[in-house]
TrEMBL record:
Gene from which the chain derives: can
Protein name (database record): carbonic anhydrase
NCBIfam families, sorted: PRK10437.1
Residue ranges of coiled coil: none
Domain of life: Bacteria
Pfam families the UniProt entry points to: Pro_CA (PF00484)
Cofactor list: Zn(2+)
């Protein structure tokens, strides 16, 4: 058996043993159901683990991940997760978390063809085009890259706010707040991008403020 594969199987056994040692009912309690307060929409990057970043336990964060943490209105996977989180689990917070050094964002800044992912990158390129005058005015490449990461997160939060799922929740008086973060791979800290939206009034105010 491949050494890596054997290692992850062994790690699972050790994790179970450690968890049961601290709480004999650990898995029995988890199996009863979930009531997470947060839906995390993050990047598929293996260096951005949702639970660990916020110090959350299993059952506390409902997670959806894709390349560059995009909120695309035709993505039925994302919409299904969002619908379940908002209408069944009744989460109170939805967080879009991007990260500095994101490969998807970097790819969208260039013209190289990568493969089938080019079709997904197209959505990110649309964000760049929307803010091209501002981004192109930033001479330092690293600063432009980091700024694009932040702008893209903000746009995904706005996309999220415009979904019929979120709009219906707000119309029905459901407590639901949207947030945008950027995670630093080289520091471990997150930056709150201050796009905290809990109503259409907030959406209008924050959009005017940020752009």
């Amino acid at each position: 058996m491949n050494d890596f594969y054997k290692k992850i199987l062994d790690n699972n056994k050790k994790w179970v043993e450690t968890s049961l040692a601290s709480d004999p009912n650990y898995f029995q309690d988890l199996a009863k159901g979930q009531t997470p307060p947060l839906l995390w929409i993050g990047c598929s990057d293996s260096r951005v683990p949702a639970n660990e970043i916020v110090g959350a336990k299993p059952g506390e964060v409902f997670v959806h991940r894709n390349i560059a943490n995009m909120v695309v209105h035709s993505d039925m996977n994302m919409l299904s997760v969002l619908d379940y989180a908002v209408n069944v689990l009744k989460v109170k917070h939805v967080l879009v978390c991007g990260h500095y050094g994101c490969g998807g964002i970097k790819a969208a800044m260039g013209n190289d063809s990568i493969g089938i992912i080019d079709n997904w990158i197209r959505h990110i390129k649309d964000v760049y085009r929307l803010h091209s005058n501002y981004l192109d005015s930033i001479e330092d490449e690293t600063e432009r890259f980091n700024t694009f990461v932040e702008i893209s997160v903000k746009e995904q939060v706005f996309n999220l706010a415009k979904t019929s799922i979120v709009q219906s929740a707000w119309k029905n008086g459901q407590e639901l707040t949207l947030h945008g973060w950027a995670y630093g791979l080289n520091s471990g800290f997150v930056t709150d991008l201050e796009v905290n939206i809990s109503s259409n009034n907030d959406l209008d105010e924050v959009y005017q403020l940020k752009f």
